[in-house]
Amino acid sequence: MDDPEHIRLRRTLTGEFTVKQMERLRPLIQEQVDHFLDEMISQGQPADLVNAYAYPIPSMVICLLLGVPYEDHAFFQEHSATLVSASTDEEMHVAAMSLAGFLSELVARKEREPADDLISRQLQRVAAGEIDRGTVVGHGMGLLVAGHETTANMIALSTLALLENPDQLARLRDTDDPAVVANTVEELLRYLTIVHDGIFRAASEDVTIGGTLVKAGEAVLVNLPSGNRDASFSADPDTFDPDRNTRGHLAFGYGTHQCLGQPLARVELQIALPALLRRLPGLRLAVPLDEIAFRDTTVTYGPQRLPVAW
Ligand code: HEM
After folding, report:
1. Max Cα separation, the chain?
2. Which of 29, 150, 192, 226 to mutate to test the pocket of ligand 1 (most atoms within 8 A of CB)?
3. Is any ligand 1 atom within 6 A of the Cβ of residue 140?
4. Residue 62: CATH number of its domain
5. pTM confidence score
6. CB of 138 sitting under 6 A from ligand 1
7. pLDDT 10s digits, 266-307
8. Number of domains making up the chain
9. Within a domain: residue 234?
10. Is residue 201 part of a domain?
């Protein structure tokens, strides 16, 4: 969707994801992180960090924000995964319809029993004539998919990157300086750029980029990882350097569609990564690195499974 309609609808959600709002969520996110750490540890080692930790945290948090019952997470996790992977048109259609049906029922429930959650607040805007009910269902679907696929892969892939950089891992684990945590997370976002596909644009006018003419109406597939590793953006771009200045990185996209949920993603990562390393100081891979398979047919990049011991 293009502006101005896009920005009008986006504005109905921006208040939900302000930095201030997300800072208020810290204790709740910390509680969930501790809960899933307890669960993973109680189930014994080796554990698959992807399923035991990386997915449950953002999944639970987005459920709490939206007012979606977490008990249904297996259902929407499966359909969200289909929507962001190389599925057939038929599979995509089934997944989208299933999620729309699920959200539509939930919206009907919230109409009857409003609560203190994002969907109920969106329904107040429906009552005020600002948006229609279908938009609320669409926003719910979008946030459910965007809210957990991305952060989950960032948690898993960041853990792997830190295990491969033990000095930086130790620094993140042992620091009590929030600025060090924040900058390490920003550098992980740049260095890993997990949204490595699926950013499409259509040129609105003729434009020449790097000597190539893109004509109005032609499609462009934007490669965020390449931008984030461009030597003109950062010196020594293939090195993981938590001290570098990451200002202007493209991990959350650029322009009017830049990630709406970035304040939430940052807080989740700033809590989940140090908590894992502090609770399990002996964390290590339970298999050799070359046995780890990666998700290379999905919009977001990350390990399919991450077997760890501690
Ligand atoms: C580390 C985690 C995340 C990464 C790397 C990420 C990355 C991105 C990127 C690259 C875009 C731009 C897409 C484009 O230009 O076509 C985007 C858009 C978006 N993201 Fe995220 N995201 C993350 C987490 C989240 C979370 C937690 C939420 C919500 C709860 C979220 C909600 C959205 C939404 C709604 C958009 C569309 C915004 C618009 O079109 O105006 N994202 N994200």
Report:
1. 59
2. 150
3. no
4. 1.10.630.10
5. 0.95
6. no
7. 999 999 999 999 999 999 999 999 999 999 888 889 999 999
8. 1
9. no
10. no
